[in-house]
Amino acid sequence: MKKSLKISFSILLIFVLIIPLAACGSSDLQKVKIGEVTRSIFYAPQYVAIEKGFFEEEGLDIELTTTAGGDKTMTALLSDSIDVALVGSETSIYVAAQGANDPVINFAQLTQTDGTFLVSREKIDNFSWEMLEGSTFLGQRKGGMPQMAGEFTLKKHGIDPHNDLNLIQNIDFANIAPSFSSGTGEFVQLFEPTASVFEKEGIGHIVASFGVESGHLPYTTFMTKDSYMEENNEIVKKFTRAIYKAQQWVDSHSAKEIAEAISGYFEDTDTEIIEMAVDRYKSQGSFATDPILDAEEWDNLQNIMDEAGELPKRIDYEELVNTEFAEGVME
Question: Structurally, what CATH architecture does the domain formed by 30-113+217-330 represent?
């Protein structure tokens, strides 16, 4: 009986000692809530940063939420539901143009090209952009970066998107792919992995890349409110360093290795499809290899917005972009 009591007491003592230590270890990590505008293979470096422990190495505990759409992502950031937003830089311009007292600052770029592809319902061996004339084109949401980059590309090839084809852009982002698969449109603008899934299933065929056509721009960037940046300077620096580590890892590893690392974020997608999508993005330079958003990219972004008639006013690069953290972690 005494022996039994001694064993029980020993076990209890172990728990008493271990639990506070575990709690202490957990509390050492500083929580950062990220809101991503959508779940996409396009954001592979972000998932790598989480899965490879780069955030944890910096003492950060990441809580990732998918906020569907740029407007919802910005609302979550402005209302403090999230600390950092991963969304197109155009949203920070929209907020600034409305006269925000606490502007949203871009501090770490993740992707540097458009991430969409042109998918044709019919297989086309020798595609040319003129083939879109007179067709029904299922585009992206008006005012969003995918749609603006899409219109920019069409105009670049001499196509007026509002007069030379039947442009559909009033369908919610989540319903664009289902609408095409159910028979709407002859062409559609899609992100990965949906584009590759459609191709594998024979629903459509990838014929061109809007990322290649529209050039470098701050397509998806980590941003936060100016007040959060001032109050959490060290956290933003650690966050940026973790992203830079992930960017370097993605740049130096194969599409297969990257696909294996991020597959848990796309449980309903075959690893083979993920690998194909990653390879497409890597081969066209969509993943930024460092977190610096440069002035030339910022100008290209505003030119594309202006071309689409969606630029409320030009905002100086220095007003909404802070490269201090990115430059610091790269030294």
Answer: 3-Layer(aba) Sandwich (3.40)
